[in-house]
Predict the 3D structure of the following.
Amino acid sequence: MSEQPATPMNYAELLTDIKQRIRAAQTRAMLAVNAELIRLYWELGQVLDARQKTEGWGAAVIPLLARDIRNDLPEIKGFSERNIKRMLAFYREYARVEFVPQAVAQIEPAGKVPQPVALFSSDTLLALPWGHHLLLMEKFKDAQTRHWYMRATLANGWSRSVLQMQIETAAHTRQGKATSNFALRLPSPQSDLAQQALKDPYLFDFLTLTTPFHERELETGLIAHLEKFLLELGQGFAFVGRQYHVDVGDQDFYIDLLFYHLHLRCFIVIELKRGAFKPEYAGKINFYCSVVDDVLKHASDTPTIGLILCQTQNEVIAEYALRGVDKPIGVSTFELTRALPAELKSSLPSIEQIERELGDTT
């Protein structure tokens, strides 16, 4: 038997580098294919729209077109009657977007009057998969809201199912809504970035807790579902520890949850509280932030941020409590169950109706 050649020095580093290059190339190839597909769909929608306007073609041409493409190009998928109609709708939604190379798009001929800047850019549209576009067109007619979810999807790498979940939980109405003293305690633009990193309320409907529950049960449930918890916290949160031990003045203290935020470049201390916010909570988390700044914070880190998560809060009380502390702290609420939409809630039978129905069958 021939002997295996000795592994060269630094081979593991070489292998890791090559694998990373392969994965990066695969990702670029997938993005390029997706971009060309989105561009094609937009162009086909543009052609159909122009023909309908200039030649008076009706909707009947679309099923004819779908049939002939299927017959002539049977190996090509994605050109059903339904999808071709979606291509037309896609073009009409983004007719003002110019699908041209960025360098060319920036050159304006001399004397030409600049056109109003469109909310959506070709780069944004080309980066999103077709399924994401269909979901966003279905859910939102408002361009600003749709654009918010586009940017959030690209920033967070949301899959279609995650995007669906974020839409169902109205993420755009919760982002940046925490009560905080960031404007007083952090310089700009760090204060704005920190504010946008927090939500209110946070939705923990992946937990199965029933009231009354203990704070430790809430903490245990969040860690047991850490992936979902991190998804709800948002991009940039990295888990450091639970019941994180700090020694101060020969006494032991334990931080409920400790995170590091990769974009804000700071530690984030989270305290979980059952019930309503109380002013004394601000003092305790201010203490923890001071300790983390002294013990864990590196010279290049920004100041540690505290986040108090409670079930309810009076914003006026919270604002007064935060005004008197010197560390950047936010207060948000959390919900264990998602409220039913009013139209669905009204369609469900009441307990009394169910009892009457059961009584009639006995």
Summary: The first helix runs from residue 11 to 55. The two ends are 82 Å apart (CA to CA). Confidence is low (pLDDT under 50) at residues 102-117, 340-351.
